Amino acid sequence: MTTLIAKELSFAYQKTPLFNQINFELHSGQIHCILGPNGVGKSTLLNCLAGVYQPTHGAVMLDDHPLTKVTPAARARKIAYVPQMSSERTPVAFSLRDYVLLGRAPYLGLLAAPRQSDIEQANKLLKRFGLADRADNSYSAVSGGQQQLASIVRALLQEPALIIFDEPTSALDVANQVRVLQLIRQLAHDGYGIVLTTHDPNQALLLNDQVSTLAQDGQWHSGAAAEILTSENLSQVYQLPLQVVELPESHQKTCIVDSTTFRNLET
Ligand SMILES: Nc1ncnc2c1ncn2[C@@H]1O[C@H](COP(=O)(O)OP(=O)(O)OP(=O)(O)O)[C@@H](O)[C@H]1O
C-alpha cells in the first residue's frame, strides 16, 4: 500500500497565492480526479504532488516520508508523472519505442541500455495502445494523440505505485478517451493509485471515485464523487449553470448545460 498525502499545501509563483492550505490524499487502488477552471492551478498542484515544485507552505508525504527527502531514483520507482501535452511540437530525436523506454531509466544503471525484456515489455504495451506500427517512427513525427498515448506507455513502463496524469485525454478522440479511462479504472483495480486532472466532469462521474474541485476563489472541496459532483458545486466552480442529471435506465449521472440555459447564456 502506497500513500501520497499533502498537508496544508500552499503555492505562489510570485506573491499572489495560487492555492492555500490544500489537503489531499491518494492511496493505492484509488482514482482521484481534480477539476477546476483554466488557470486555477491544477497543473501546479500536480507538480507539487510529483515533487517537481516546492510548495510555499505545507508538505507532501510519500508513505510517511517527506517527498523532499526521497531520492529522485526512489521517487521515480514510486511515482510516474505524465505531464500535460504541449501544443508545441518540440523536436525529440527518439523513435517512439526509445521514447517509451525512457520509462525504464529508474531501473537501469547510468548509461546502461534497456534489456531485451524491457524492449519486449515496451513492444507489448505499444501494441496494446495501437502504436506498434509507429514504434520505429520518430516521436516528433507522430500525432499529438499518439504522443499522449506514448507518454502513458512510458509511465506504465516505469512500474510505479502511483501515476499522476495531467489531462491524459486532452488530445484524444472520444474512443481513445474511453480507452484511457478504462485503462485508468483497470490500473486502479490492479492496485495503482491514480490522480488525474480533467476538464470534463463526466469523466469524473464515470470513474466515480475520489474527486477534488479547485475554484477560482481558491475554494477546495474534496471527497467522494457523489458528494462533490453536484449541480451546485460544479456550477459554483465553473461559474456556469450546470446540471448533474441521472440517465433513466443506467442511472449513470451526467453533467449538462440544458438547451434553455445555453440559449440564454450571455457571452
Ligand atoms: N512557471 C510559471 N510562472 C509564473 N506563473 C505561472 C507559471 N506556470 C503557471 N503559471 C500561472 O499559474 C496559474 C495556474 O497555472 P496552472 O497551469 O497550474 O493552471 P491549470 O489549472 O492547470 O490550467 P489549465 O486548466 O488551463 O491547464 C496560471 O495563471 C498560470 O499563468
TrEMBL record:
Similarity comment: Belongs to the ABC transporter superfamily.
GO molecular function: ATP binding
Database matches in CDD domains: ABC_Iron-Siderophores_B12_Hemin
Name under which the protein is recorded: ABC transporter ATP-binding protein
Pfam families on file: ABC_tran
Keywords noted in UniProt: ATP-binding, Nucleotide-binding, Transport
Gene3D superfamilies in UniProt: P-loop containing nucleotide triphosphate hydrolases (3.40.50.300)
Organism placement in taxonomy: Bacteria, Bacillati, Bacillota, Bacilli, Lactobacillales
Domain ABC transporter: 4-241
